[in-house]
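Quick review question:
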């Protein structure tokens, strides 16, 4: 059972985040603090995991994925209670918690200052990205399974990205490491510039992919079958629920948390794809994305860190992904790499030698030409 239980790791982090909303004070920072601790110090202590265990009872792993959605629902309910106002006890949750634990959660909330509210929003937003978007990403790859798509899209909707699966599955996996892919960060591009470019580009592509799909079926883009518009409606429904339960301030507070979750997705995109190029139309190889086999973050993120195999074989469930020890590998785990990316000069200093190594050991002659030339079309023509 240890093989299965190791993927349970995101649950205590989600539970601690929800509990922190009721405990108040410094406990509201639990989600962010545990993410940094497990993805930083614990990753360093436990090192790499290149094992390839076999799982006979994969239904257990599916249940772990599906269970993240109700956990996120409970966390968002806790956030709504926390921001509902000093005189409100939404659904009597405060009285229930006090009766069960003896801890005066209403008094703790009444004492919450600005810093406490900031911590609550950042921690919830972090979990919407680290747990929600990550598991939603895994499930929306199962385009043939309505149940997985339902769970996956609602997890993504909670972080204002319900249509992520459209662009990710049909755009990103096709265009990875090319200039046609907004989710591929370019050599010399800062994290801050990338987040805005990638977010806008993915939303735009999601709309265009759905418009074109419906057009091929002879349908207008404004149609109930439009998954992009349905995704917007899902996001609006969650925001409306916060508006009705907590008022305008609460709805805006939730929106900030959701956008923080979306930002975590873009941070991950940035470090996973930075600077690597591919000639459009050529085979996607394991060395077209940055890999990481750090043990703890791999388990929290359901093997997302085995990104080289994920892009080489996009339909593989997470438990079948291989470590690809010889693929291009990031020097640190995901959390540490993201923290480094927040300081662009430091990021470039760390990654430039890695890119030069990728260019010399992994890139084809045509890809080296793309890296060398300032204009994509001219260098591609020269390479051909």
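Suggested answer, residue by residue:
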């Amino acid at each position: 059972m240890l093989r299965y239980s190791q993927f349970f790791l995101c649950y205590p982090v989600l539970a601690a985040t929800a509990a922190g909303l009721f405990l108040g004070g410094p406990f509201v920072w639990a989600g962010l603090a545990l993410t940094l601790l497990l993805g930083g110090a614990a990753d360093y202590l436990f090192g790499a995991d290149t094992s390839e265990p076999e799982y006979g009872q994969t239904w257990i792993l599916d249940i772990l994925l599906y269970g993240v959605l109700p956990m996120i629902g409970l966390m968002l309910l806790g956030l709504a209670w926390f921001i509902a106002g000093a005189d409100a006890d939404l659904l009597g949750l405060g009285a229930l918690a006090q009766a069960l634990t003896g801890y005066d959660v209403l008094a703790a909330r009444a004492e919450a200052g600005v810093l406490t509210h900031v911590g609550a929003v950042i921690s919830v937003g972090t979990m919407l990205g680290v747990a929600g978007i990550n598991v939603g990403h895994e499930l929306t790859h199962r385009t043939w399974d309505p149940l997985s798509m339902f769970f996956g899209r609602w997890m993504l909707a909670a972080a204002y990205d319900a249509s992520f699966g459209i662009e990710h599955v049909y755009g990103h996996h096709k265009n990875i490491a090319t200039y046609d892919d907004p989710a591929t960060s370019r050599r010399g591009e800062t994290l801050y510039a990338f987040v805005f470019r990638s977010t806008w580009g993915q939303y735009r592509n999601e709309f265009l992919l759905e418009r074109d799909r419906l057009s091929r079926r002879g349908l207008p883009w404004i149609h109930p079958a439009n998954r992009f518009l349905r995704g917007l409606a899902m996001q609006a429904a969650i925001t409306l629920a916060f508006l009705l339960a907590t008022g305008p301030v609460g709805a805006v507070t939730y929106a900030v948390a959701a956008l923080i979750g979306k930002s975590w997705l873009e941070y991950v995109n940035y470090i996973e794809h930075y600077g690597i190029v591919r000639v459009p139309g050529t085979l996607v190889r394991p060395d077209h994305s940055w890999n990481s086999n750090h043990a703890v973050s791999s388990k929290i993120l359901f093997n997302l860190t085995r990104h080289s195999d994920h892009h080489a074989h996009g339909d593989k469930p997470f438990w079948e992904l291989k470590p690809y020890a010889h693929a291009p590998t990031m020097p640190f785990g995901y959390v540490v790499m993201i923290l480094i990316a927040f300081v662009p000069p430091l990021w470039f200093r760390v990654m430039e030698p890695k890119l030069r190594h990728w260019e010399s050991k992994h890139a084809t002659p045509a890809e080296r030409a793309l890296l060398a030339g300032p204009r994509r079309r001219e260098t591609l023509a020269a390479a051909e």
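Why it works: Residues 227-273 form the longest helix (47 residues). Confidence is low (pLDDT under 50) at residues 375-384.
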